[in-house]
Amino acid sequence: MNEHNKTSHPPKQKPSWNNLPTKAARIPEKFLPEVLQYARIRDCSGSGFEVVINLLNTLTQDELQQIKVAIDSLVLDDHKPAYTANRTSTRDDDNLGEIQLSDTEKAAYTASFGFVPSKYQLNIVNWITQSTGNACCNAVAGAGKSSSLLLIAKTLEQLGVSPYEIKVCVFGKENSKDLIKKFGSGWQSSISTLHSTGWSLVKQELGIRGGHKIKISSKKYKDIAVSFGLIRGRNSRNSLLTSNKIVKQTDVFFKLLDLLRLCNLNPTVRNLQNLCEHHNLEGLIKPKEAVYYLDKCLQVGEQQAANKICFDFTDQLWLPVKWRLSNSGWLKPYKFVLVDECQDLNAVQLELVCMLAGKSGRILAVGDPKQAIMGFAGADCDSYAAIMARIQALELPLSICYRCPTEHIALVKKLFPDIAIEPSPTAQSGTIHQIKKEEIMDYVQDLDMILSRKTAPLVSLCLKLIANKKKAQIKGRSIGDNLRKELEAIENDIYFSWDEFNLSLDTYFESKCATYKGSDNEEQLTENLKDKIDAIREIYRATPHAKNVKDLELEIDNIFSDENAPITLSTCHRAKGLEAQRIFIYEPQHMPMEWRGQKSWQHGQEMNLLYVALTRSKSELFIVGECKWYKPECTQQSDDEQEG
Questions:
Q1: Which of 334, 458, 511, 536 sits most deeply, having the most CB atoms within 10 A of its CB?
Q2: Cα atoms found within 13 Å of the Cα of residue 255, Cβ hemisphere only
Q3: Which H helix or E strand runs over 573?
Q4: Regarding beta strands 431-435 and 422-423, do their DSSP bridges make them parallel or antiparallel, or are they unpaired?
């Protein structure tokens, strides 16, 4: 039975044509009404069009499909792509092609996506449908990256590419869940974090099924080091790393072990020296001996993984690349790999992305080079440029910010003139206020977000808000975990005494700072440690009922959370991807942070953190305190008059 409503009764006819085009041009199915409008325009008299409609009613679905292909090709002739195939030049906003949408197309986009794509988004769609090769989208803050990814993915799907042939890589489980909800349940297997993707490949290679119990431990390599006597363990008080003066502190050894894997490097003296210089790591005394033990730990760690004994989270990224699973016969490349927040990719993640695409797949990476703030995880300010070079990408701009008001964007453009950021045509003007630090309690209200470069000021403010019956939490359980680790180290110090807790904090701080003496990044390390000690001290002061360290740890768990609270406090690092109607930048004098011996890439990331903070607000921006980078207009005019 023919279910097509237009051919259910007329007799089936034989078409007068037999061959389809060998490579049909296509447009999304929801734009088929545009075909009718196009036909009406072509038909000047109007009477001929009615005849065409009557003829269409007599055709089968297969015959109608051939008609659609032919008309689709005519429609596409009127919308030439802005980018030609294999173009390798960099972005050029002045030559950006303008695509004029009809009212029907605008209505269709609004119905399907809830918005009408910008000229930048339409040119990305044109690149997908008309060009070949790889591309990077340079997306400013608030450019609607997730909406653009949805537009891209759905366009591919309408072109006949199945969601199973598309991989969408994101950072963070929550982002993955949000994107699946936005895309639909049919995309659940296509959207994942790179850690999850790498782990799936490892399990496939090793034949690990759902019933297998696999140990995943963040302490895996520390346990391996203990087995070699490199660090102290429960049954051993020896530490070859420090007693043989290989490193000043064992922390640098494990930091190097992580960075070697994240940066996809072999343990060599040159590589260790470069990593120490780039990341301001101090305390590597004997590089040759360190290379020997690092290589030994990595070999044992790899063997444990091969034997399905134990993994850590970095293994999930490193092992697919180390084992070159791209050469395995079972790994089928995706036709298209979409990457979100690509500016934060480290070297091993980039190789994993390339592995997923293989030789035949295409890569579209979306990111903002000015939001590169993950240097501690192996990425740096040059990650975006490295990706462009590695995949030989065309750069496609996404320059419209749909989040921030015009006043906020004007401030951003003044501080960062090299960023091509534009306000939305419908953006409000917004407001910027500068208030005193002691006034914040009078201004802050539910649904506000407070940002700070440092943790300690947030802890102090959060405790004050709670004391004033305002529900508040600090975003980021991982930050609380770091404080717990530092608190554990303080408790294990031989001079620790609960009865003299503040004195113990001072003693621990002084002894640890002594190990930083003479380091190029002594000032940075001291400042970071002071921030943690100050945060712990604030928690101790606010919990007079605490009887031991365990009580303080419980208070830390109460303050730090990944859940949403009526009032959210966040470090600038943790704030990326977040937004609120009203944003408070607390203690702005610490942005950007500067210290003696600061590397140029570190200064770049500090500036990026300021950019992140300034682009979170949707309505009002409060600058709480004095800073070098902002003065109200009235103050600026007064200064100019005095100079005159």
A1: 458
A2: 20
A3: helix 572-575
A4: unpaired
| β-bridge mates for residue 475, sequence order | 561
Chain CA centroid to CA 513, Å:
33
CA distance 258 to 315: 9
The C-alpha angle 449, 610, 444, rounded to 5 degrees, equals 20
Instruction: Say whether pLDDT at 375 is over 60.
Output: no
**Using alpha carbons only, what angle is made at residue 491 by residues 489 and 494, rounded to the nearest 5 degrees?**
95
Residues 6+ apart with CB under 8 A from 481: 560
Helix or strand holding residue 97 (H, E): none
State how far the Cα of 259 lies from the Cα of 330, in Å rounded to an integer.
29
Nearest to 474 by CA among 587, 559, 564, 543: 559
3-state secondary structure of 398: strand
**What residues pair up with 592 in beta bridges, in sequence order?**
none
**Taking the CB of residue 223, how many other CB atoms lie within 10 A of it?**
15
The answer to whether 578 and 570 have CB atoms below 8 angstroms apart is yes
∠ CA 627-377-244, rounded to 5°? 110
In this model, does residue 202 exceed pLDDT 90? yes
Q: Quote the tokens at residue 365.
A: 């990476």
Angle subtended at Cα 232 by Cα 229 and Cα 234, rounded to the nearest 5 degrees: 105
Evaluate if pTM is beyond 0.85. Answer: no
Q: Which residue has the tokens 């237009």?
A: 6
Q: What is the overall mean pLDDT for the chain?
A: 84
Nearest C-alpha neighbor of 532 from the set 479, 493, 496: 479
Averaged pLDDT for residues 607-615: 94
pLDDT-derived band at 75 (thresholds 50, 70, 90) equals very low
